[in-house]
Amino acid sequence: MKKTARAHTNIALVKYWGKKDKELIIPMNSSLSLTLDHFYTDTSVEFKEELTADNFSLNGVSKDAQQITNFLNLVRKLAGITTYAQVDSTNHVPTKAGLASSASAYAALALAASSAAGLTLSKKDLSRLARRGSGSACRSIYGGFVEWKMGTGDLDSYAVPFQEEVDWDIRMLAIVLNDAEKKISSRRGMQTVVATSPYYPAWVKTCHQDIGELKEAIEAKDFERLGTIAEENAMKMHALNLSASPHFNYFQPETLVAMQLVEELRAAGIPCYYTLDAGPNVKVLCLEKDVAQIKAKLAEAFNQEQLLLAAPGPGAHLLA
Ligand code: ADP
Ligand code: DP6
Ligand code: CO
């Protein structure tokens, strides 16, 4: 039976950046994210007796299916089947540009593939399965604010909702400077950092503190505290990249321009904060009431088409 699932991306406010176990994708630290409404992936999966290999298309173009096959092998094992599948996916988010396409991609694939294989997994097991495709995907099973509890291994490393229904006008304005595919994948970047950054132990320690404080800020709807924690956490992550060997970074000149504009807005009394993932695109955390003023300021350097607004979004769900 063909099944289609939709999953939204998420923006990590306290980030996952490093693995304890590469095969099982067990992280070095817990992370906390907000699922977003504007960016998502739709994926359909159908297991068919007549296929002699898995087929994969992304945005209508046929692609190499090796990564998909590796992931589907987990599903086939769980379901006790050996059939190959036709997988068709559409990203409503730029691919590999640091806008978390891997999060929405593997959350959608986990739900579509497990359903198409006849499984009805609990959300916990869906999150564990999505994690095996891409770590950040385990959080996209849920909507709203979500925590990935690092755990110690395959059984206890999964996401749990922290606040699924967000009754808060928090927004994320993505400044798309460049939607080209990045040169250093998240996977490779974090591996270099864990192996070589002298600051890595300090990162792990402060992430534990950041998560505790961030939860308090969310509960208190203290936007300035949330923004400060998120911005500082993102800069700590990028400092790891700068301190790795070989060192690397995801910044482009316009990344710094965007960061500067956000700081100027803040100095002018508008609460807004930036965060960046493994890519040059800057995401501005803000409140709905300030969006128009923030867009007007960003217009000094960016076109309106480069500004994409997202609100809290839902968890992964089946469309058909
Ligand atoms: P991003 O910042 O976009 O998450 P990553 O460096 O994490 O970038 O890598 C993205 C990974 O996810 C790549 O392996 C890419 O092929 C894969 N991917 C992206 N979109 C899809 C999709 N819709 N279905 C399956 N895999 C996808
Ligand atoms: C910077 O989940 O894409 O976006 O597990 O190797 O697939 P893999 O990496 P991925 O890494 C995401 C890194 C991040 C921070 C985050 O989303 O927590
Ligand atoms: Co990713």
TrEMBL record:
Residues 7-159 form the Diphosphomevalonate decarboxylase-like N-terminal domain. Residues 173-305 form the Mvd1 C-terminal domain. One of its GO terms (molecular function) is diphosphomevalonate decarboxylase activity. GO terms for biological process: isopentenyl diphosphate biosynthetic process, mevalonate pathway. Its EC number is 4.1.1.33. It comes from the Bacteria. GO terms for cellular component: cytosol. NCBIfam families: mevDPdecarb. Belongs to the diphosphomevalonate decarboxylase family. This is diphosphomevalonate decarboxylase. It comes from Ligilactobacillus agilis DSM 20509.
